[in-house]
Automatic annotation (TrEMBL):
Keywords recorded for this protein, A-Z: Signal
Source lineage: Bacteria, Pseudomonadati, Bacteroidota, Flavobacteriia, Flavobacteriales
Signal sequence bounds: 1-21
Protein name (record): Uncharacterized protein
Entries under InterPro entries matching the protein: Quino_amine_DH_bsu, WD40/YVTN_repeat-like_dom_sf
Length: 407
């Protein structure tokens, strides 16, 4: 049977629909360029989280559309999704140290922050990084531990109900060869049953410094080895992040040193089922770089590493590890730290870099730089310090994790 349409009325209907969409004040569009940020107030008001538009091509670029206050002095610090990306969390240096955050989409699909529920972390203080495993646990580093001078701990939580299962403690006073102290970075290789944490710095940033990473059994929580990540035992390099490469990637461990300004590497040993000793693979001082912070990997064997001083992101090829090939250098602002990756509405591949580290002088630009990866051109900069009186602490996608592999 052939159907015959009257084309004139059909054209009018299409025209009316198009006209209504064009004049709708709230067209339903995807918000893949809106991001969550943690922030600290510079005016004595509440710290919290916000939703911000980061597409430089968008008319509302740099605008905050939703805010969630967490409290004065809470200092939210890192944003994470759980294993299935259906629950959102932020760690914090103060307040309750860990919060589950509820977010939803409004009627036009715009991300909106709703509420935050504090999670009981027991005696553990100064929340840092999280890692969710596929068996229903998550691990959290506490740089302050129970508050001692040379303290630090790792909390093990039930991911379904956020209950603290166990606190892993291993004081350096008990065993100077295998210990956990000032843990910040954490990474897990579930296939190998291994977890590694860094030893960074005392929470007051002056009372103590670390220069090691410690390997643990993921299931027994036994400490397997503590590695020196420094030029000498007296070099307080402050390893800040660690990444156990897994899956299709070469099986190495990578670590960045905050005060050393370097990248270190260790190969996995199939015989010992541990990692061999770490060696320096990139010396930041040779490039005028310092304060090495975050590591991200894309799906094409590219490693992105932020250097807070003077504010750069270096892009490396890791196809031939342990050789690390520098591909390009992207310029951000002082304090270059966390990153998110996305496409602009016109299809440009970009990285947005959050430029602030703990409001440390000369490392606290308070901006977010949006950089085109191919050309290295800065397409836009959001000045959160000047516009809102806040500093961004971390950044994450509103539709799930915005990087292929972070920790």
């Amino acid at each position: 049977m052939k159907l015959k349409f009257n084309l004139v009325p059909l054209f009018i209907i299409i025209l009316m629909i198009f006209s209504n969409c064009q004049h709708d004040n709230h067209p339903e569009i995807p918000h893949d360029t809106a991001f969550f940020i943690d922030y600290r107030s510079l005016t004595g008001q509440s710290d919290g989280m916000a939703v911000i538009e980061l597409d430089p091509e968008a008319p509302d670029f740099g605008n905050i559309s939703s805010k969630l206050e967490l409290g004065i002095g809470v200092l939210p610090h890192h944003i994470y999704y759980n294993q299935n990306a259906n629950k959102l969390y932020t760690t914090a240096l103060g307040g309750s140290y860990l919060y589950e955050v509820k977010a939803e989409k409004d009627k036009i699909g715009q991300p909106k922050l709703v509420s935050a529920t504090p999670i009981d972390t027991g005696e553990n203080t100064v929340g840092e990084n999280l890692f969710f495993t596929s068996d229903g646990r998550f691990f959290m580093t506490f740089m302050g531990g129970a508050g001692g001078l040379r303290d630090g701990s790792v909390g093990v939580f039930n991911a379904s109900n956020n209950q603290l299962i166990k606190t892993i403690k291993a004081p350096i006073q008990d065993n100077p060869n295998k210990f956990i102290m000032y843990p910040h970075g954490i990474s897990v290789n579930e296939e190998k049953g291994l977890m590694m944490v860094t030893s960074t710095i005392h929470p007051d940033l002056t009372s103590g410094f670390g220069n090691t990473c410690t390997l643990l059994d993921l299931n027994t929580y036994e400490l397997k080895e503590t590695y020196q990540i420094a030029d000498s035992p007296t070099d307080m390099s402050s390893p800040v992040e660690v990444l156990l490469l897994r899956g299709k990637f070469p099986q190495y461990a990578l670590a960045t040193t905050m005060l050393g300004g370097d990248i270190w590497i260790a190969p996995y040993n199939v015989v010992t089922k541990k990692y061999d000793a770490f060696s320096k693979i990139f010396d930041g001082s040779t490039q005028g770089l310092g304060w090495t912070l975050e590591m991200y990997i894309d799906d094409n064997n590219r490693l992105y590493v932020s250097f807070a001083d003077p504010g750069k992101v270096l892009v490396f090829d890791i196809s031939n590890l342990p050789q690390l090939k520098l591909i390009k250098t992207l310029t951000a602002d002082k304090g270059a730290h966390h990153m998110v990756f996305f496409k602009t509405k016109k299809g440009k591949e970009v990285v947005a870099v959050q430029n602030n580290l703990l409001n440390i002088p000369n490392l606290n630009s308070g901006t977010i730089s949006v950089i085109e990866i191919e050309s290295g051109k800065t397409l836009g900069t959001v000045d959160l310090r000047g516009k809102y009186g806040i500093l961004p602490e971390s950044i994450e996608g509103t539709n799930g994790p915005s990087s292929y592999m972070h920790h």
